[in-house]
Each structure stands twice: as C-alpha cells, then as structure tokens.
Sequence to fold (81 residues):
Amino acid sequence: GIVVNKNAIPYDELPPATASGVRIGTPALTSRGLESDEIRRVGELIARVLDAPDDDDIAAGAHAEVLELCDAFPAPGVPLA
Fold:
C-alpha cells in the first residue's frame, strides 16, 4: 500500500485546515525494494488514473501494472496468495 494524506501547499489561498495538496509516502515502496525508476512508474500510474477518473480501461491497465509491480517486489513478511 501507499500512505497518502492531505497536505497544505505553500502560498495556498485556502485556509490550512482545507488542505489542497496530497502527500504520498514512499516508505512502503522502498521497503519492497522499489527504486527511483519503479517509484516514478507508480507516480505515472497515479497521474494516469487521476487524469481520467471515468475511464475504466485506464483503471484496468493501471491495476494490471500494479499487480506486476507487486509480483516483482513482494512485501516483506507478507505471504503471496
């Protein structure tokens, strides 16, 4: 999994309690052994899905790529089903 949370953006016109940004945590990815190329790929997958939230084909393609990454980089201590 990837940890995300709302985050304030510098110079945002909205109040701090209404965060406009999203912070994406990478420790879960680095714990699996992903390096910069794979983490960049994850970011591209997220952007692709967010750019077309109603496109089921894009979502399905991203899901397939996520499964490939999970197979290539299993979570430590988590048995594969």
